[in-house]
Design goal:
There is one protein chain. This protein is mainly alpha-helical. Helices cover about 60% and strands about 5% of the residues. It has five helices and two strands; from the N terminus they run H-E-H-H-E-H-H. A two-stranded antiparallel sheet has the order 1-2. It is elongated, with a radius of gyration of 22 Å. This is EF-hand domain-containing protein.
């Protein structure tokens, strides 16, 4: 159906507003994700770097993790380590921020952006 008046239809205005909202929401989620990732990485290093060299090793992390209430087995602790370290022997805060394997989506869940559309 054509628009004989040449004016924008309400649907196109809604589409534009929706696009603006989607862009804003996406940007906000990106910022939240980056901040959460930074906090997560900092906490992993700060809480587990026993020799204060700026790195956390597999041994340091699994030993500290096993001292808590969970996980119950070394294999569970190792699986958690491998999830965010990508199987590396040691990681730094920067490694966790830059390496896709270190992203917190593997550790604390994914923000489902489709729920906001």
């Amino acid at each position: 159906m054509s628009n004989p008046t040449g004016k924008n239809s309400p649907a196109s205005k809604t589409g534009s507003a929706s696009s603006s909202f989607d862009d804003l929401m996406s940007s906000t989620l990106d910022q939240m994700s980056a901040q959460a990732q930074s906090n997560f990485s900092h906490n992993i290093i700060e809480g587990n770097d026993t020799n204060r060299d700026g790195y956390v090793t597999r041994e340091e992390y699994t030993k500290n993790l096993m001292a808590g209430p969970t996980p119950k087995t070394f294999n569970e602790a190792l699986q958690i380590w491998n999830t965010f370290s990508g199987g590396a022997e040691r990681v730094s805060e920067q490694d966790l921020n830059d390496n896709s394997a270190g992203k917190i989506v593997a550790s604390v869940g994914v923000i489902d952006r489709s729920k906001f559309r």
